[in-house]
Amino acid sequence: MTHYLLRRCATLVAALFFASIIIFIVLQILPGDPALVILGPDAQADTLKALRHQLGLDLPVWLRYLHWIGGVLTGHLGRSTAYDSSIANLILQRIAVTVPLAIFAMLLASLLAIPVGAWAAARRGAVDGSIMAVTQIGIAVPDFWLALLLILIFAVHVTWFPAGGFPGWWHGTGAALKALVLPVVALAVPQAAILARVTRGAVLDVGLRDYLRTARAKGLREGAILWRHAMPNALIPVTTLMGLQFSFLLAGTIIIENVFTLPGLGSLLFQAIGQRDLILVQDLVLLFAGLVILINFLVDVLNAVIDPRLAQNLGQGLQ
């Protein structure tokens, strides 16, 4: 297991390094001049030159990359030109909305999907068919359309929840959680539909194994067989998908945060792109990419803990 963790850590570092290079290159080749966007089309040439020098845009590309990645590694993320504020402070303020939103959505999706998927696998027939039909509808529904529908029903008609905005955690946990209810549901429902179908398929696949036939021959109840024997062995594909879904939820907050006017990382990235705040866009995209890579790393480690044979097989394959 130690060798497996070391290899996975090396892969994690390499993936982050190559992601930073790709992000930097892509943003450098985009058309447009950040200095011209900031000062406007009527800016004087000497003023533009001075601002480009201040932003480091007159340096060679390789040197700009080293300055940027060095600042990221030391915690000096630079200063936003659009907000005239420290990027580190902006991220710390906004991450307190985005990360809880994604975590609560993933928890809700898991609590809905895993029991429903396992139940569908254990109740073949009309129950299974009905559940799969409902999940198919859930997959087909776009999260932004569901968000608008939830606002119309629960914020406009019955006024149980706010239609948008975020009061801040300092104004009370209850008010903050209430503002996140509709965004969490809008993000969780489509992901729960996908996860339920994968859980059902994983449980059905495990149900054909010999050790479950032996458990049934010993007279164990179907409920005990399902939750004590089938589910633990069906967790590998389920946890792998959950890791991918959590990554998708982080990216999906860009749309949902704009629908609900939440001050999170997604809306900050959207605004930074529109304002051509290059350094802020670079830092935010790298943060999102880093979170996705880190989540996949943690999922791989969790799968190796659930089934140590995965780490052993990888070690044998590399010998």
UniProtKB/TrEMBL annotation:
PROSITE patterns found in the cross-reference section: ABC_TM1
Pfam families (UniProt xref): BPD_transp_1, BPD_transp_1_N
Record field: transmembrane: 12-30, 101-122, 143-163, 169-190, 234-256, 284-306
Compartment(s): Cell membrane
CDD domains with a match to the protein in the record: TM_PBP2 (cd06261)
InterPro entries given in the database record: BPD_transp_1_N (IPR045621), MetI-like (IPR000515), MetI-like_sf (IPR035906)
Domain ABC transmembrane type-1: residue ranges: 95-303
Keyword Transmembrane appears in the UniProt entry: yes
Primary subcellular site in the record, as a coarse category: membrane
GO terms, molecular function: dipeptide transmembrane transporter activity
GO cellular component entries: plasma membrane
Record keywords: Cell membrane, Membrane, Transmembrane, Transmembrane helix, Transport
Signal peptide boundaries: none
Membrane topology: Multi-pass membrane protein
Family according to the record: Belongs to the binding-protein-dependent transport system permease family.
Annotated protein name in UniProt: ABC transporter permease
Organism encoding this protein: Acidisoma silvae
